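Quick question: what would this complex look like in 3D?
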Amino acid sequence: MFDLSIWFYFGMVLTIFGTIATVWGPGVKDPVIRTINTEVAGIGVSLILLTYNYTLAVLTVTATTVVCTLILFRAITRLEEIGADV
Amino acid sequence: MVVDLVPQFVPSFFQSLYTPALYGGLIVAFISLIGIAMQKKDIHILILTDLVGLAMLIVVAAVGTDLAEALVLPGLVVELAEIMAISEILISREMRKIGSEKSFVPSSFSLDMEILYTAPNFIALILIAYGAFLSGFTGGAVAGGGIIIYALSRTARGLPVVVVDGISGISGIAWCLWIIGFVFFFVAPQYWLLSLFLAAFGLFLKVASKMGLIGILMREEFGRK
């Protein structure tokens, strides 16, 4: 139906776009917005791994991205709680 | 050039993707490293480190064989452990910098949603059963997701949450199982199936209990009244 490399290049564009959005995107002074922008790049990497048929790697990337986000949110809320400059 | 080094069994489609994947990974790494160099605040640098890990994944994935898959999994585990450790160090350093007279008890965070009372038992059961079927690292991650859901929604009916706390003690025993499985591979190769299952389920228990530990940590954090 589609050329397989479409998914690869779409994933690559999403990854680069998500990286730029995380580094220079609007509102990234707020660490929460920066963390959520990381997810865009994460989805792009998942698409790339999907093109290469890495089932286990896709499952693991999905799981660890969620856990990473949880850890980062915990760190951010804790730092804001103790009144650090974030 | 590199074409001579590529083994014969790599599909030509993956070979054709090698150069764009390598350059794409380098571009992502370059942008995120520039971002790290420009940042002053530590928590932002920690978030951007996540992106460097993603660039590493793309470069590893460009290999295009099962070797890449075998390298992606430990890379992810190391990245996860690194982010956990650095975030803990960051928090304790900020606490010291600000001074201990501030209270570090987080404000209470109460969620009142129907799904937290009824669904967690079922979802956790399905995820743990599927994780046990998968076994190995991925199964551990899936089952650990189930344990996290169960531990985070502590109002679930059924098993008391105290039982989940005990599960985290299994981690050390599971690690021993994994090592015994590896030693068996070399000492008695004729029992390869036994050692394979020892290693797979040892790793499963280890990862699942580690992720359960994260869930309990988060619950302690947010469930404090």
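Answer marked as accepted. Chain A has a mean pLDDT of 88.
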